Amino acid sequence: MANANYVISWHDTVNHGGSKAKQDVENFLKAEGYREIDTPANNISKVLFVYFKFPRIVKSIHNSTILFQFPSGKPFLRKKMMESIRNSDNKLVVLIHDIESLRLNHEPGREKENAEEIDLLKKCDGIISHNEAMTEWLHQQGVMVPITNLGIFDYDNPQKVNTDGKYDGSICFAGNLEKSSFLNKLQLKHSLVLFGSHPADSYHEHLKYAGMFPPEVLPQKLTQNFGLVWDGPDVNSCTGPYGEYMRYNDPHKVSLYLSSGIPVIIWREAALANFIQQNNLGILIDDLTELDKVLDHLSAEEYAAMKENVVNFSGRLRGGHYIKQAMKNISKATDGGDNA
Known about the structure:
By secondary structure, the protein is α/β, with parallel strands linked by helices.
């Protein structure tokens, strides 16, 4: 095949919000001229493809960059795919979506899986990490290949940007509601509208469940003033494996909110907190029990300025600015600037 750059399209057998981020990356890069290496959706077909067809495809490509979105597939499949790329004359660049060895690093019995995951990342030609905190953690694990920071995930959002600047202190939250068990303890006087799977049987009176919608439809439903970004079982801080993970990752729901024109409320110790503060895209908070007071003290003028920033910023996420820039940066870092 002719010299070009490639992105691997990995189809999940179950469609869920988690596949949205990968699909967006594929779409944004294909619009930049990247070619797609498509994979089958059926599980048996995947195995046959990875072991027999994929190595032949990779060997037919020369002196190109191949982007692997990590993690994709079962561990044995991703290991085989990454080995196939490394055994060719192409460059293997990994875009990290999640690192289980970071999110679940305190879980007993995972030592072998954690070590294998880090070993795979050590053997890449280059990595696109979420942010400085995640990159520093990778360095601490001995991953010394070139790394560039994404900054924030882009979001291909087909819905009209919400430009309504009227302030009433309303909030929305989108995600796996079962995992977000802090909601079961949360009491607010402001309205909080919940979207997603596995809602509880009941919530505090000002928390209202509004249903589950496909990623391309959901932004249309987000008409509130703020989108909440919080995780774990507690309202006083983000705790537990998923809460602590916010110190390192870029939650995709941040991009959902911002691309929709919705400022965010995020934990002050989250990795994305500085990004939000520096760009005036939302509010940082230590404790959700303080949220009512914070919203009461926010003036309509302050909210209007924040809202305007978010509406302007949404265009960057909708256009794939961050993944495009990250691919250029990692290409230079791996001495492949002429390929990007």
